[in-house]
Amino acid sequence: MSGHSKWATIKHKKGAADAKRGKMFSKLAKEITLAAKSGGDPSSNPTLRTLMQKAKSINMPNDNIDRAIKKGTGELESAALEEMTYEGYAAGGIGLVVNVLTDNKNRAAAEIGFVFRRNNSEFAARGSVSRNFERRGQIIVEKDAAEEDQLMEIVLEAGADDMITDDSGYEILTQPASYQEVASALEKEGIEAISSEVAYLPMVTKPLDDLAGVKSLFKFINALEDNDDVQNVYHDADINDDLIEQALE
Q: N or C: at which end does the chain have fewer Cβ atoms within 10 angstroms?
């Protein structure tokens, strides 16, 4: 679940990862398998290296990681994976972009479509929602992980577009093509990120300021994320962090 209110959202995602660790392992294994198709050596495959770091950060067993890599390189048999995107609207006109990685696109479409209908929605026309989002590298670093000036120098030299600072920490933004270089520069300096991905970020957000609406949105997103084929769900709601905390109680 990713949107404009990044800090409370990240806390929620980390909590969800703890509660659904087995499902997280399965989803991440798919991403590792897909990345390993471009090469199973993480030293020459930065995407794979980043995913392996992410896997280790949630204590994914090494055997699971190795098996996923071997499926990608062809050493172990594996079904072909396809990347797909679905889009639609939640109540209040909140846009949703759903990233999917599946070995059966017909099953994925049917199951995800069912979740949409259960939440009084339907798939939107391709591009009608995603045109309000842009693909950006987004790296989140907590305040005590680095000094602002030092961090700014590292990421800009590595090719980042911008670094946004607030009371909670730093948000580093890159073009997708520059993301791995920036992530690697932080890794080299020993600066740990609490969230690091190439994400769909909304260019324009919609305010969502009532508790019932926030709870309804989260229920919808959680139902989507419970599907094994769904890797990420992005939304364009602008929600006050306090309201997020109330909705998650």
A: C
